[in-house]
Amino acid sequence: MTPWVTRLLFANAAVYLLSMTMPALVSQFALIPALGLRQPWTFVTYMFLHGGLGHIFFNMLSLFFFGPRLEERLGSGAFVRLYFIAGITGGLLSLLFTPNVAIIGASGSVFGVMLGYATFWPRHQILIWGIIPVEARWMVVALTAISLYSGFGGGGGGIAHFAHLGGFLGAWIYLKVLEARSPARQWQKKVTVQPRIIEGANSALERWRRISRDNLHPVNRDELDRVLDKISASGMSSLTSSEREFLERFSARS
Fold this sequence. Notes:
Low-confidence stretches: 193-199
CATH class of the largest domain: Mainly Alpha
Shape: elongated
Order of helices and strands: HHHHHHEEHHHHHH
Structural class: mainly alpha
Strand order of the largest sheet: 1-2
Mean pLDDT: 88
Number of helices: 12
CATH architecture of the largest domain: Up-down Bundle
Number of domains: 2
Helix content: over 70%
């Protein structure tokens, strides 16, 4: 477990238990998008409210499964920002399409976490209901299609489909901003503009090879080995921007 995933799990569980003893909390802190400008705090508070045990269970199960690896990859600060941005964007998209429908739940934030996971590990297989294997990228595509169909087709069934779509959208925008500002992207720009800076490239490679493997999560150790092997086989120019960002992030910690 990682720090912010643990905190979010406990916070959601605590608020759920509190709402069971004080049901008025749900109506007071739920988000009614049309009233959001008068009650802006509800764009955050609605993420911690749930309508039943099944609702919170599946949201927290998804956070438990997808969150730790993503937090380890992004860093705790970036992870928690993605989580809240996705949830807030879910509320804002609901304001456009279902302004008078009250919404509760962490689904928008959790959908943002799932999109982040699929962005970095698109081919990782997820077992739906423990038996049906599907790659992470296709899971996101399927959930997007279901939310679009149900949201615009009127088959809401009490589910905040536009909050789900907003979670995907917010996370996607945030990850694009992170990528554009990443040290790896800035380094890539410098190499593109000044292709003769071979010494700088060699320095970066030495720094990446000195990354300490001892404190890395096993998943990140495997990823480090894979990326370094790729450099040996195909050269540094073969790296993607996300692979460079991965190396830069962990070399900064060493």
